Amino acid sequence: MAAPNKFAFVLYRPQNAGNIGAVARALKNMGFDDLRLVGRGPLNDREAVKMAVHAGDLLANATVYPSLADALADCSIAVGTTSRRGGYRSRATPLRPSAVELDALAGANKIAIVFGREDRGLTNRELKLCHRLITIPTAPEYPSLNLAQAVMVVAYELMMAANESAAIEAGRTPHFVEASISDPMLERLAEALVSIGFIPDDNPDHIMLAIREIFGRSGLTAREVEILNGMARQMRWVADGGHRTLAEKRRAGRKLR
């Protein structure tokens, strides 16, 4: 069973102070205490404190970050939430089965659950930083949830998954690298794939979102990141003509013998 502190709940640029307080209350109800805000403060807003009720301590201890990347830097897996479908979002998986899997992974990894603005959710730009997507099944006539409602449902499912899962030995759960390590590798990989013509330089995100999702499903260990960094360097070296220079040196060496 994963410890509650293995999950961080990240609110990206929330607009309503009351919603932030209601989120704090929802998290405390479900036993979570890591609340992170991107681009929103201060936290002593009267409406936020009022809506937090007895979760004022959790609200006061919330951390404010200047960017989403900063908020996710110490997390191995970032999970974006969406109610919209189509395009990249069609890969979103339902919350309940996802919660069981995330609970198992959280035994050895810090996991962030990311929620977008109240009026438009997470845009594709923010989803670029997420390894996985989840969606909360709702009636198709009205799929949109209030921010605090969405957080409550996700936190509840994670709590239930933890309560129902068998204890997992920490040594058997793979430890994945944090986003601060995997994200620079993904940037190098994108540049390398552009250099060899695998992805277009005018729209690399289309393929890179899919690659990020693949790595998000499997997770990346430190050794795997090291290998992928090496692959990216080798691709750039080939694209820059390094292999031709090496071949010429080898041919010249054979002639001298």
Describe the structure in your own words.
This protein is α/β, with parallel strands linked by helices. The chain is 50% helix and 11% strand. The chain is built from eleven helices and seven strands. It has helices at 17-30, 46-52, 56-60, 68-72, 95-105, 124-127, 147-164, 179-195, 205-218, 222-239, 242-256, and strands spanning 7-12, 35-38, 63-65, 77-81, 93-94, 111-115, 132-135. It has a seven-stranded parallel sheet. α1 (17-30) packs parallel to α2, α5 crosses α7 and α8 (179-195) packs parallel to α10. The longest helix has 18 residues, at 147-164. It is elongated, with a radius of gyration of 22 Å. 38% of the residues are buried. Mean pLDDT is 85; it is low at 166-171.
Shape: elongated
Estimated share of beta-strand residues: 5-15%
- Rg of Cα set: 22 Å
What's the total number of strands?
A: 7
Number of helices: 11
Biggest sheet features: 7 strands, parallel
**Between the first and last Cα atoms, what is the distance in angstroms?**
66 Å
In short:
The protein has 257 residues and is an alpha/beta fold. It has helices spanning 17-30, 46-52, 56-60, 68-72, 95-105, 124-127, 147-164, 179-195, 205-218, 222-239, 242-256, and strands at 7-12, 35-38, 63-65, 77-81, 93-94, 111-115, 132-135.
